Amino acid sequence: MFTPTPRVQVPNAATKGEIFQVKTLIGHQMETGLRHDDQGNVIPRKIVNRFVCRYNDVVVFGVDLHEAVAANPYIEFYLRATESGLLDFVWEEDGGGVYSLAHHLTVG
Amino acid sequence: MVEETWAICSTRRGLFTAAAGFASVALLSPPSAHASDDPVALIKQLTGKTPTESDRVHLAMPRVFPNGYTVPLTLGIDSPMTETDHVKYARVLAPRNPLIEVATFHFVPQRSEPRVSLRIRLAEPQYVLVVAEMNDGALLMTKTWVEVATNGCT
Predict the structure, then answer these.
(1) Omega prior to B30 cis, within 30 of 0
(2) What is the mean pLDDT of chain A?
(3) Residue A32 carries which DSSP code?
(4) Which of A11, B12, B122, B138 makes an SS bond possible with B68, Cβ 3.0 to 4.6 Å?
């Protein structure tokens, strides 16, 4: 079975107040529930339906994803550096699967 | 930004796709009446509020793209992102997809910027819409035409 693998690209350090770029990608088929298999049965929907980024436990960015997001969802966004700490990235899948990554950011 | 990239790499295949795109537009026009053809009516139906078209909302997508499986999208909204003036969310819709919702981005004042990139699926050539709700409840929208050569939703 294919295991979704999350990846992020975030700077290790930033100056206070700076806006920095975050690139995230998770390997995931994003099965839409619109496709049929060889026997004509519907392949059930299984997509990553939610992505959340927390900065020291405060939600700073979130996305609701639907069927029309391409496979292997890539999300690029921008955050403001406020203090040193932990960035948590969480992807939630249909059926309750959760994938996450953490990254430490030093703010000077 | 995306449009520029695609203009630069105008390969032979790109030109063919563009030509095919023009041909299909010519054949299909005038487009058949479609319930979701009026973006304002569609958004009003979904949100209960009337959006206004605004140049503060920017949506960059390639005008012509060879496949509908992974079409790049970049959106941005001009906003100071202060407590008193910020974007709450931006919602992307593809009215001619079998399921029109694409994604909704939630922003937090002073913490995140209303600027994102994503790759989406499109079933057929269509206007892609972005609706942004501001903190005062105003709905701002923009749309951009994208011509895909293959259906990305099957």
Answers:
(1) yes
(2) 94
(3) -
(4) B122
Inter-residue contact B151 to B126 (CB < 8 Å): no
Q: Which residue has the tokens 């309750």?
A: A96
**What's at B54, amino acid-wise?**
S
| Contacting residues of A for B110, CB less than 8 Å apart | 80, 82
Residue whose C-alpha is closest to residue B24's, from B56, B58, B64, B52: B64
Looking at residue B89, its pLDDT comes to 97
Backbone angles phi, psi at B94, to 5 degrees: -120, 90
Nearest to A66 among B102, B105, B112 (CB): B102
Give the closest of A19, A66, A76 to B103, CB-based.
Answer: A66
Strands B139-148 and B64-65: parallel
- The answer, yes or no, to whether residue B128 has pLDDT greater than 50, is yes
| Residue type (1 letter), A42 | V
- CATH 3.90.190.20 describes domain B2-148: no
For residue A107, list chain B residues with Cβ-Cβ distance below 8 A: none
pLDDT number for residue B37 = 76
Global pTM reads 0.84
So what's the pLDDT on residue B5?
43
Residue ranges of domains in chain A = 6-107
Task: Tell me the fold of A6-107.
Answer: Immunoglobulin-like (2.60.40)
